[in-house]
């Protein structure tokens, strides 16, 4: 992934008690593409390529 071609996206997901690695595995199983940057109790911030934004929104529904 090129950093110049990526955006920060936030997704709402219950993250309490999980490490960023565990959350990344859960999101990958859902089909979300990207890299976990920050984890809050109820949302995840990810670096996502611009072309994958729409795909990820569909996976999170």
Give an overview of the whole structure.
This protein has 61 residues and is α+β, with helices and mostly antiparallel strands. It has one domain. It is built from 2 helices and 3 strands, in the order E-H-E-E-H. The chain has helices at residues 20-30, 53-59; strands at 6-12, 35-39, 43-49. It has a 3-stranded antiparallel beta sheet, covered by helices on one side. The radius of gyration is 11 Å and the shape is globular.
- The strand count comes to 3
User: Which residue ranges are poorly predicted, with pLDDT under 50 across at least 5 consecutive positions?
Assistant: none
Largest sheet: 3 strands, antiparallel
Give me the oligomer status.
Answer: single chain
Please indicate the percent range of residues in DSSP E strands (runs of 2 or more).
25-35%
Helix content: 25-40%
Radius of gyration: 11 Å
Please tell me the total number of domains. Answer: 1
Structural class: alpha+beta
The CA-CA distance between the termini, in Å, is 24 Å
* SSE string: EHEEH
How much is the average pLDDT?
90
Number of helices: 2
Shape: globular
